[in-house]
# Entry
Amino acid sequence: MEVQTKMKIQPECAVCIIHRGYQQIAAATNNIELQFKAIRELFHFLSQNFDQTKTPAWIGTQRDRIIKKVTGNDDPYRERKRLSNQKAMEILPLARNIVNLADNEYERFRKACLCAIAGNIMEFDIPGHFVSYDSLKEVIENAEKELVIDQIKEIYELVKKSERVLFLTDNAGEILFDTLLIGELKNLGAYVIVAVKGGPVLNDATMEDAEFAGLDKIADEVITTGTDAVGLQIEECSQEFLKVHENVDLVIAKGMGYAETLTELKLKVPHALLFRTKCNPVARFFGVERNRNVAIILS
# Structure
């Protein structure tokens, strides 16, 4: 499926941007004066930049940088990320068993994709989206029935033709389930480079989370994007990352941040996007309902 339009910000995105901003500010500092200052600076920024030329990912990136600068806390989600990793580790054996019980190579790959997509539920502070660690088992078991755009077979065929695959992770916790899919990419003969964020942003995975998940022992390489930007904002990425991105046969990207930014780019190789529609604007863009699973190839 070829996406023809770009995913620009919508009026209702303001609710999410401000809500997530306040939640991060409250988590970053107990100092009321700093909280007021951060909120004022956020509102000032939005008054000048909230328009239809921007992507939600760009606005979200700038918001988070304002909050980190004003509060002096460079990772407001630190503790929630740590807990997400621990909870995901507890449920990982169930997901691994689902993959291992598959009948053949393709079914193993499919189950691993579904587990990775199910893990994308682990994102905080989106209005109307709630994460319950107790429901993770159910979310994984229901991943197939909630898959509304299904190009997993096409992704599988692309992987079999690819020598080098770049895997772009999304959230902490979720990254544990990604290890299953990355393992299957390796089983299919691909050289796999995994990229995490170069610095804390939202609850996105960083190198610390990759090491917790053991990705350094599963992937061929683990690198960073070189930036704390949401999604893939090419102008901010390091030269090391860009060189890798430009010299692979396939990119697999997780999450809505990549959905919001990949549609801005002229893609030279196929990008397989795996995510859950956790907000209405993203769901509408892909023509599906909210809280559904998507596996789609962008090219």
Remarks:
- The chain has two domains: 13-71, 78-298.
- The longest helix spans residues 78-100.
- The domain at 78-298 is CATH 3.40.50.10880 (Rossmann fold).
